[in-house]
């Protein structure tokens, strides 16, 4: 790390030393003892501009306090049937670890429907997974390997991606904005697998809009990505949709489905949240109701990407309709 980088870290650290309660408490939940690494994440997200990184980090801490994010791991989604419905329609899970010790998260982009609960439940679930990753999984991995592990790997399955993705763009933009503003630089690499033609078309439009540091993190792998991913992880950690070509679906596989509520990751996560709820409010019955978080206004970049995606998907739809309308039409040579 260069001298300029070290100077920026020290400058931001001095600014954060003056942060008072309750921001300091929530900052501890953010850095989990890895303060320098956390400062670096926010500096990277603002191109090493100390003033902008400081504002971003303080804004993040205010967001956490205002929305009681520190308590979100004590707020289970109940009843379990509702949580199961969220899991069935928001396909995400943890399949294992890379050989370097980074958690591997699998995301079924193409087959996630987000149609079984309100937006707030999906946002709640997403933030809970983020917080469980940052407060439980990453500290545990760091302790095991004897070094800071503060990022993860994400494998995005595009199986089943259809034009109906238009209806998901708004929610996905909200979730993406929450991550960009409050969980920056937590993903080391995005691996995209099982990409259909429609994704390739959208990718050509969206990729130029992404910041360079984000573009460098994205790798589109051929087919299910099995051979490439096995270079960085054991087969036991490979997401089920990467196990073999033509595995068919993010939702069903002969291999263990890491999206399923029965998967050890989701069982551990849900049990952890239930236990935390009993510790914090032992005398109170667990009530149904989503944990409302202020939904952020998407940044200009996020809005532009969403608009470009929507436009490209609409073009693709029109092209498909035109192609179908000409099918079977015979043109005479006369």
TrEMBL record:
Top-level taxon of the source organism: Eukaryota
Query: Which CDD domains does its entry note?
Result: SEC14 (cd00170)
SUPFAM superfamilies (UniProt xref): CRAL/TRIO domain, CRAL/TRIO N-terminal domain
Which InterPro entries does the UniProt record give? CRAL-TRIO_dom, CRAL-TRIO_dom_sf, CRAL/TRIO_N_dom, CRAL/TRIO_N_dom_sf
Which Gene3D superfamilies does the entry mention? CRAL-TRIO lipid binding domain
- Which residue ranges run through the membrane? none
Q: Which residues form the CRAL-TRIO domain?
A: 82-239
Q: Name one Pfam family in it.
A: CRAL_TRIO_N
Q: What is this protein called?
A: SEC14 cytosolic factor isoform X1
């Amino acid at each position: 790390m260069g001298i300029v980088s070290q100077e920026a870290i020290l400058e931001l650290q001095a600014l954060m030393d003056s942060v008072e309660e309750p921001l300091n408490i929530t900052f501890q939940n953010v850095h989990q003892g890895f303060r320098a690494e956390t400062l670096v994440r926010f500096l990277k997200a603002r191109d090493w501009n100390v003033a902008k990184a400081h504002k971003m980090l303080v804004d993040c801490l205010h967001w956490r306090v205002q929305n009681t994010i520190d308590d979100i791991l004590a707020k289970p989604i109940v009843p379990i049937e509702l949580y199961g419905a969220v899991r069935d329609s928001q396909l995400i899970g943890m399949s294992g670890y890379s050989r370097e010790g980074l958690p591997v998260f699998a995301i079924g982009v193409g087959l996630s429907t987000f149609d079984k609960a309100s937006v707030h439940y999906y946002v709640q679930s997403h933030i809970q997974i983020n917080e469980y990753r940052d407060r439980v999984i990453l500290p545990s991995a760091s302790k095991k390997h004897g070094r800071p592990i503060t990022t993860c790997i994400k494998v995005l399955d595009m199986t089943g991606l259809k034009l109906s993705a238009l209806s998901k763009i708004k929610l996905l933009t909200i979730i993406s904005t929450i991550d960009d503003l409050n969980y920056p630089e937590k993903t080391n690499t995005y691996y995209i697998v099982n990409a259909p033609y429609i994704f390739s078309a959208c990718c050509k439009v969206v990729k130029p809009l992404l910041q360079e540091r984000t573009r460098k993190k994205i790798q589109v792998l051929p087919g299910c990505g099995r051979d490439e991913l096995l270079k960085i992880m054991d087969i036991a950690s490979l997401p089920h949709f990467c196990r073999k070509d033509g595995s068919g679906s993010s939702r069903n596989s002969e291999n263990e489905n890491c999206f399923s509520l029965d998967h050890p990751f989701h069982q551990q996560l849900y049990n952890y949240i239930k236990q935390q709820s009993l510790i914090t409010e032992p005398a109170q019955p667990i009530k149904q109701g989503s944990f409302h978080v202020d939904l952020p206004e998407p940044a200009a970049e996020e809005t532009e990407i969403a608009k470009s995606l929507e436009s490209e998907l609409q073009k693709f739809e029109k092209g498909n309709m035109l192609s179908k309308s000409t099918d079977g039409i015979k043109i005479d040579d006369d």
